[in-house]
Design goal:
Low-confidence stretches: 1-15, 17-36
Helix content: 25-40%
Largest sheet: 8 strands, parallel, barrel
Strand content: 5-15%
Bound molecules: (3S,4R)-3-hydroxy-2-oxopiperidin-4-yl beta-D-xylopyranoside
Strand order of the largest sheet: 1-2-3-4-5-6-8-9
Shape: globular
Distance between the termini: 28 Å
Structural class: alpha/beta
Number of helices: 13
Oligomer: single chain
Order of helices and strands: HEHEHHEHHEHHEHEEHEHEHH
Number of strands: 9
Length: 390
């Protein structure tokens, strides 16, 4: 009598459910506008996302810095439970940025980040470090640092080496440089005004003082302090596969040619329900993987209301979000060879904690859990993509 491979049967059964639910979702409308009547939004019962994959599956979490951030995960057992149940990695949403770690020159404040890292390690979560060098959320003293290029470089190296050494053995990867590329479409893009001169780099205080050299220097300093973890360049809007992605590839190839210790490309992926189109996203992943580096989705969230026209999140929008999350995670898993998959991280747990409403000025319902930490249909999109890839 043939022995039934129950694992295989379960897998096939799950896959056929996925195909059915995707076709249902596809019937759910695609305009993203107020629609879908008054049906309640389903609450899925996904047991554990992390159980479905071997790769890092991460989430950004809020933590305290004095009383500056109110929604500290360490004070919220309900949030901790969801993180531990579904994820195997965290990113500190803010407190490992330079303004919190080195608020005054030479004064490092480790206690907030240390508490968070300890909680993560106690709960079998790894930590993705974010971010060593970034023009934003820099302390004022750093932004206004008065010195020539040599002094600027020494000051930045000092920050990178102190931070990467402090967390050596505790983080499993770093975003070393964040957002160094320009959003201009070309050197004479009038929309970009003052950064045209620096194209394709962002006209940041870092660039103004050091030119593009700060990028290679940051990777070298990070490598000097911690040579055992993958070091990422991280940026947004590169999944549109436009001029910014072209610039990224040229930059990465240049760094590799100069033997700069860069190991990975981080796609932030703060995307919309309808932008970028999935073909662009796929080709961007493919091009990043073709560099031979690791590729990680570092900050995934998905705006369902990018133009602010919706006053509420409907059942139809929830199903549409499921489908879009499924497409994006599946595109990543299919286009990036498994040995180059640095993992997928979401930028926040619940819609209530998302940075997006502060950023866009309206609700966008971008994450996998609602304001009450209940699962949204979106989580099934991720579940389905992970199961299909098993
Ligand atoms: C955001 C945080 O989510 C907010 O709480 C903070 O006010 C601003 O920064 N790209 C990044 C992240 O690399 O660090 C940003 O995080 C979101 C955009």
């Amino acid at each position: 009598m043939p022995v039934l491979d129950t694992d295989l049967v379960t897998k096939l059964f799950r896959k056929s459910l996925i195909v059915m639910s995707l076709s249902l979702a596809a019937c759910g409308g695609s305009s993203g506008g107020d629609q879908g009547g008054d049906e309640p939004i389903r609450e899925p019962m996904v047991e554990s996302l992390k159980a479905l994959t071997d790769m890092p599956l991460g989430v950004a979490v809020p933590a305290a810095y004095y009383d500056y951030f109110s929604n500290d995960i360490l004070q919220r057992p309900d949030l901790q439970d969801v993180v531990v149940q579904h994820f195997n990695q965290i990113t500190a949403e803010n407190i490992m940025k330079s303004s919190y770690l080195q608020p005054a020159q030479g004064v490092f404040e480790w206690q907030w980040a240390d508490q968070l890292v300890q909680w993560a390690l106690d709960n079998n979560l790894t930590v993705h470090g974010h971010a060593l060098v970034w023009h934003s959320q820099m302390p004022t003293w750093m932004e206004q640092f008065d010195g020539d290029a040599g002094q600027w470089q020494a000051m930045l190296d000092d920050h990178v080496i102190n931070v990467a050494s402090h967390f050596n053995g505790k983080v499993v990867s770093w975003d070393v440089v964040n957002e160094a590329l320009s959003d201009c479409a070309s050197a004479n893009d009038s929309y970009c005004g003052d950064s045209a001169a620096t194209y394709p780099y962002r006209n940041s205080v870092l660039y103004q003082n050091l030119g593009a050299d700060f990028i290679a220097a940051a990777f070298r300093a990070a490598h000097q302090a911690d040579s055992s973890v993958p070091l990422y360049y991280n940026d947004y809007n590169i999944s549109a596969n436009g001029p910014k992605m072209d610039a990224l590839i040229i930059m990465v190839e240049g760094l590799l040619a100069d033997s700069v210790p860069i190991d990975g490309i981080g796609f932030q992926m703060h995307v919309d329900y309808n932008w970028p189109d999935i073909t662009s996203i796929r080709s961007a992943f493919r091009r990043a993987a073709a560099t031979g580096l690791l590729v990680k989705i570092t900050e995934l969230d998905l705006k369902m209301n990018p133009n602010g026209q919706n006053s509420r999140f409907t059942a139809a929008m929830a199903e549409q979000q499921l489908e879009r999350y499924q497409q994006i995670v599946a595109a990543y898993l299919e286009e990036v060879p498994s040995e180059q998959q640095g993992g997928v991280s979401f930028w926040g747990v619940s819609d209530a904690d998302s940075w997006i409403p502060h950023h866009t000025g309206h609700d966008d319902w971008p994450l996998l859990f609602d304001q009450d930490l209940k699962q949204k249909p979106a989580i099934e999109g991720v579940e389905q993509a992970l199961i299909t890839a098993q």
